[in-house]
# Entry
Amino acid sequence: MGAFIHFPVIPAVDLCSYDGHVTRPLPRSERGNIAPFHVMETMAAAASHEMDGHTVIHLEVGQPSTAAPKGVIEAAHGALDSDVLGYTSALGLPELRERIAGWYLERYGVGIDAARIVVTTGASGSCVLAFLALWDAGQRVGVIEPGYPCYRNDLHAFGIEPVPIPVDGSTGFRPTVEHLDGAGHLDGLVLASPSNPTGVVLGPEHLTPLLEWARERNVPVVVDEIYHGLTFGVETPTALALDPQVIVFNSFSKYFSMTGWRLGWLVAPAPLVPVIERLAQNLTISAPTLSQRAGIAAFDQTDECEANVARYHRNRDSILAALGDAGFKNIAPAEGAFYVWVDIAHLGIPATELCHRWLQEIDIAVTPGIDFDPQRGEDFVRISFAGSADEIDEAGRRIVSWTGSMR
# Structure
């Protein structure tokens, strides 16, 4: 089924040729032998389908369909006109770190010392820095499945053992202390709220026992909060309000619609900041300066951002209603982010095949669940509702029509 079915491991190159000269075989580290990020393969297949003349509704993409807020763009123009845009400190612009600290006080009522904040190259950069600062090769770190695949893949690349902690609808796709107890010895734990792909929010009643479990065992916890702000009728506490010793990371990509600006941040306990700083100095030097200058303005653009959230909420309700009409029943809560995690097992079609068929037959691109849950992912698809209202409504109609024809 093309790019959706088979993702072979690229074999080591035996002979390399440069300008007609044959060289010796190239060695290759085991760090590169990680799984691909399959959603990128899905996007490539959709692009190929479009090149064949089809108009595809993109429900596979995990990014806002809106541009950065106007104030951010204006600040970027101003920086281009007036700033040399050289390197910043590895920890980030002091003004941006102070503004991020202010955001925690304004939004959560939590006071954070700006010295604990590290500006990163997207939340992906936060993952790399946090994982390398906390854990050594051979240690065991729990990751929730279904969950964002790059946690697992990054840990594997660093020689750290990712320990899958499977959750399902019986607990609302939320991890519990019982799940952690069943994982064996852990040297660390990665959590996310709201979660990609399930949209599940971990409220205080869910987070508190997990963090207490970790604190009693001296297990460091990293919490991904990049979808904060994108919630629908539920409150989303920062884990820092419950335990100041956790590492939290966030991003300008989702709530502030700044994916391509590659800007994020993490908040770490003070003793860990020098470690992270040294890693950042050597790995990236600093996050993009233009993005940092513009990012300072992002926190004053909440009117635009909240209008986007209202559209996501409306889209969420639309696609959930369509999925219900189409006979899909086991769907994760979708309380936040802009995804629905849908059980498709009753169709008797593996997710990779279903995604291929929907692309070919009804011009819709969705992501097979194997990215997010390698063991059970063929029974699920992830659908993004970050697009326009018209796109989401039309996608719902096509899915209802397609499943109706299958009955």
Summary: Residues 1-10 have pLDDT under 50 and may be disordered. The longest strand covers residues 140-145. The chain is about 40% helix and 15% strand.
